[in-house]
Amino acid sequence: MSEDEFYQRAEAVKLDTLSDVNDIGKPWRYEEDGLTVTRTSPWSPPGCHPVGCGLKLYVDDGGRLVRVEGDENNPVTQGRLCPRCLALKDYIYNPARLLHPMKRDPKERGNADAWERITWDEAFDIIKDEYDRITAAYGRESIVVFAGTGREGGTFAPYGTMCFGTPNFCYTQSGYACYTPRLAAIAYIAGTTYPEWDYAGALPGRWEDERYELTECLVVWGKAPLESNPDGFFGHAVIDAMRRGTRLIVIDPRVNWLATRADIHLQLRAGTDTALGMAWLNVIINEDLYDHDFVEYWCYGFDQLAERVQEMPPEKAAEICGVPVEDICAAARMYAQAKPAAIQWGLAADQKTDGMQNGQVTVDLMAITGNLDVPGGQILPGAGAGHNESGFGFEKGVGDELQKKMIGLEQYPAYCMIILNAHADLMLHALETGDPYPIKMGFYAGNNLMSCTSMEPQRWHDAIVKSLEFCIGFDTFMNPSIEASCDIFLPLSTVAEREGTVFTHYAPCTVTAGFMHKAIEVGETMTDFELCYELGRRLRPEVWEDFASAKEFMEALRLGKKEGGAYFDKVSQNVVCQIPVEYYKYERGQMRQDGQPGFATPTGRVELWSTAFNQFGDDPLPYYLEPEFGPADPELMKEYPFILTTGARTTAFFHSEHRQIAYLRELNPDPIVEINPQVALDLGIADGQWVRLRSPFGECVEKARVTETVDEKTVHAQHAWWFPEEDGSEPNLYGNFRSNINNLLPNDHYGKLGFGAPNKCLVCGIDPLVENYDTDMNLIWEKFGKLV
Ligand SMILES: Nc1nc2c(c(=O)[nH]1)N[C@H]1C(S)=C(S)[C@@H](COP(=O)(O)OP(=O)(O)OC[C@H]3O[C@@H](n4cnc5c(=O)[nH]c(N)nc54)[C@H](O)[C@@H]3O)O[C@H]1N2
Ligand SMILES: Nc1nc2c(c(=O)[nH]1)N[C@H]1C(S)=C(S)[C@@H](COP(=O)(O)OP(=O)(O)OC[C@H]3O[C@@H](n4cnc5c(=O)[nH]c(N)nc54)[C@H](O)[C@@H]3O)O[C@H]1N2
Ligand code: SF4
Ligand SMILES: [Mo]
């Protein structure tokens, strides 16, 4: 995409009208009780998805943050905060936080004591020398940017495109098994992007707004929004809606808080959602519960879909999923008969080999029930609102020739092109083997792959340490990946130390646009925008000549304007703005660039028979894949008799972060695995006892919580554990591989289009241990509790 096109698209998202939209609450900064209060809308770091819960930062005369409170003026969050923002002070002033650049001799990688403080200038000089040397010898494609989840750094494509000029910006979770399979499913099937549940977030009158219709039935599917506030969605909106009468269906192998309040809880076997979705389609079609008008005028391939789902009668799904057939039918009827109804589909949809097909059946359900683009159903962005930041600077910074070298582009174009990302599993192979070409330099942009992002983390560790001649970490704290593999460390600013923006739902389906205001200064830190700009213009001045400052770069990329920061300064005073939403856009030609009614697909309709899937060589209709490592292999089940699901979020932590925050660690001191009481009895495991978890790929230890939240077939293990209080040097590496559930999970088991991974549905065995690895909370308080 050219820059001109980019700015046009930014206009399509109505970002240029922000200042006129609305002006909510008190001024952005004011005095109260002798303190300066700054209202802000945080994103990251600390890591969070782009929710931007309204936050007030209280700063004393000495410029120190002394208190945080929720900002009641935010129209969606209304003052509510989770523990991580409440503990912000303990994160910012934590004694383990790193506030200056550092270098280490590459021979000393893995030695936690070998770091040496340097200046920013020295850091930039070293990086420039290494960049010039490595790109001259191996080309820019030999650089990989390790990307993570949707925090600012994690999705910051300009690091790849404009700063280093490499096509290899790479999110390193196998099969890109987070969000993008869902996003790709709707993009290929309906030519739009992630459909969020309409919780009236964008309407000035919120729930009472006359344009809104209360969602009669909400399906929370493989998602735990109260704990995760995922992808820019404020989880408590579910409770707000329930209080108004919304009925709930929860589809989850675990009993989570919402499941206990649901009308129907389908407690299915992990990894079998696609079968369940096909059975819902079967019931809805066979019982004639679908929206005839929508199907007739706006869908393509209905008859083929109707025929395909005959292969999955509810009785068959009941057997596969382990759920009573009458519950499957009752839930499908309840969803289809409610007007409007919505589905909140979560991460579990992606984390299976047939993740794309799971996405496909979900979009099909939303479509044939007529819930797309309607009040109280699923909101969709209008034409051109792709606002694809991942393309920003690609032409100028990378160029067509180098783009073709993106790892995985040839084999998995449906994956690599949708989000301009190198393929995770093929990147691992390139690091291990030098095929198709050597990877020599790395940069961690909000990624801790050895503790969290990546499966078989020892493989990633060994490949990176062996392959990379030079590697840079940019973070708030030291972490195992940086400790093991970096030669330079650069310090990162937190939300309280920075300016910026936060668009809920990653921009296209934004309901609120928030602005971050700088309230304090700590150490010598930079933001992702600042580092990208400062480093980029030193490495490649020709790419950066159009931007006068890091702030102007931020203004251009996020707001589609270039006014030296003046436009940002003006609109950011709003702190938070609602972005107008429109419904039934497909009827009025607002979903397609050419202004014709319908959807932006080749047929102009929602493609239940997908021409895109067909073109990419996959089945155009949904199909269910039985998990490869599961009951389909009875021999395997003898050794590994349980189904392991992993990574359901807790409010205490964001992935591998926050283990140094004593208040948060106190909430969850040890890595927890949930085991059913009957299983505990059979295996002789007591509540609180440590156990070994093992799979054909590896093992780790976690602490048993004996609980009925899981049934007798299922165990659930927390992910992303490491121990910042322990020795950081190799081989201990902060205990990184001891309780790392990703030791048990494989790479290379994705679907036909390159997406999906069995990270929430693998087999595992459990052995009780006599050893006790309990965290000493006194040590945590001593080490991390006294703020500096
Ligand atoms: N506090 C906190 N918030 C976070 C994060 C964090 O680390 N901490 N991470 C962020 C990120 S990157 C993401 S992607 C989101 C994810 O957030 P969500 O989409 O909410 O996903 P999870 O919390 O992983 O899991 C949600 C539910 O899926 C269930 N589940 C497990 N396996 C299956 C299955 O096979 N089928 C079904 N139907 N359900 C299953 C789990 O039991 C759990 O209740 O959260 C984001 N928000
Ligand atoms: N078993 C299992 N594994 C999983 C999951 C699961 O459900 N089960 N979930 C997976 C999912 S969905 C995801 S998205 C990945 C997440 O994986 P990652 O996104 O890699 O998350 P972290 O490992 O926490 O590493 C992120 C690092 O980024 C830093 N950081 C935070 N904010 C910023 C920022 O704004 N800029 C920069 N430069 N750095 C920042 C943090 O301090 C931290 O050290 O994990 C995956 N791993
Ligand atoms: S979800 Fe929690 S950490 Fe994220 S912005 Fe809201 S209160 Fe802060
Ligand atoms: Mo994620």
List the helices and strands and how they pair.
Layout: H1 3-12, H2 18-21, E1 29-32, E2 35-40, E3 55-59, E4 65-70, H3 83-86, H4 88-92, E5 102-103, E6 116-117, H5 120-138, E7 143-147, H6 158-164, E8 169-171, H7 180-190, E9 196-197, E10 217-221, H8 225-228, H9 237-244, E11 247-251, E12 264-266, H10 273-286, H11 292-298, E13 299-300, H12 302-308, H13 314-321, H14 325-337, E14 341-345, H15 355-368, E15 378-379, H16 394-397, H17 400-403, H18 413-419, H19 424-433, E16 441-445, H20 449-453, H21 457-467, E17 470-475, H22 480-485, E18 488-491, E19 500-503, E20 512-516, H23 528-539, H24 541-544, H25 550-559, H26 566-571, E21 576-578, E22 606-607, H27 611-615, H28 634-639, E23 642-646, H29 662-667, E24 672-675, H30 677-683, E25 690-695, E26 698-706, E27 714-717, E28 762-768, H31 777-785
Parallel strand pairs: 7-8, 7-16, 10-11, 10-14, 11-12, 13-22, 16-17, 17-18, 23-27, 24-26
Antiparallel strand pairs: 1-2, 2-3, 3-4, 5-6, 5-18, 9-15, 19-20, 20-21, 23-28, 24-27, 25-26, 25-28
Helix pairs in contact: 6-23, 7-15, 7-18, 10-13, 10-14, 10-15, 13-14, 19-21, 23-25
Molybdenum atom is lined by residues 149, 178-179, 347.
